[in-house]
Amino acid sequence: MSEDLDTARETLASSLSRPSTGRVYDFYLGGRHNYAIDREFGQRMVDMMPEARIFARENRAFVRRAVRYARQEHGIRQFVDIGSGLPTQGNVHEIADENDHDVRVVYVDNDPVARAHAQILLADTADPQRHFAIDADFFDGLELWERVVQMGGLDPEQPICLLVTALLHFVVPDQRPERMLAAYRDQLPSGSLLVLSHCTDEDTTPALQEVAARYVATTSNAHLRGRNEVQAFFGDFELIEPGLVWTTEWRPELASEDEPPFDGDPASTLAIAGVGRKH
Ligand SMILES: C[S@@+](CC[C@H](N)C(=O)[O-])C[C@H]1O[C@@H](n2cnc3c(N)ncnc32)[C@H](O)[C@@H]1O
Q: How do strand 104-109 and strand 131-135 relate by DSSP bridges?
């Protein structure tokens, strides 16, 4: 393990030439797993568009509520989080483990820095028998899915909650993300859930377009989508009530007692979100 951690630390030291989307997001969240290059970029974005911090905070809050929903309402015990970012407070495994300690979680991110952080932080907070982090790309497709199932010890016959949150706005249309997501949806057994959030240019501040264009300087380009395009990512999955809504509008009652209710303009969250169920 210590050799692995040494490698992880070396990866961190050598991967700081560009702001990383995951670390910039951590900066928006007020986290500590970011570097000067990320903070400088992130601060410029916040100066242009203060809603960036609201987006990150409320997107994370949506993820927590959706995980709670999957666990409590559907009894799901297997979670796969693609584009998971840096572990932060209220990680999927922490929320999923709130009541029972029998939940398996596989985190996937293509940023070796995020993966290195995940490894270091999971070593402290997670159960190595049930919680895993893989350095892989959303576009690795079925090969990735096989790794996820094998490494996570997942039962492919039992429902899985697949999280793809705040990821697809870093995938441009030429990459055909809808095809790849459809391949993952096909792998999921009946009763599985898809949790998805995405920044949108419909009814949000025009500054978001400018901020998205600036992401060319980071580890990922950004691409905003309208409501119909985001809805199409769910394919034939049934959208659970209340459907595709601003992140803060998705089942706010599932927030924990220590999470203050959001009382701002829902459009200031910049992102829409939903949960779909496979029949
Ligand atoms: C904004 S963070 C979202 C983190 C988390 N999913 C959330 O909603 O809070 C986006 C993450 O997606 C990762 N990412 C971007 N493109 C990816 C790809 N093609 N495959 C896997 N991860 C990717 C980035 O490295 C980053 O950590």
A: parallel
In the chain, where the domains are located: 2-277
Residue-wise pLDDT for 154-203, tens only, equals 999 999 999 999 999 999 999 999 999 999 999 999 999 999 999 999 99
pLDDT digits (tens, 9 = 90+) for 226-237: 999 999 999 999
How many other C-beta atoms lie within 10 A of the C-beta of residue 2?
6
Mean pLDDT is lowest, of 4-18, 31-45, 51-65, 85-99, for: 4-18
Structure tokens at 117: 């952080």
CATH 3.40.50.12160 for domain 2-277:
no
The alpha carbon of 180 and the centre of ligand 1 are apart by a number of angstroms equal to 15
Mean pLDDT score of the chain: 93
Report how far ligand 1's centroid is from the alpha carbon of 162 (Å).
Answer: 14
Ligand 1 pocket residues where CB is under 6 Å: 21-22, 25, 59-60, 63, 82-85, 109-111, 114, 137-139, 165-167, 170, 220
* Ligand 1 geometric centre to CA of 23 (Å): 10
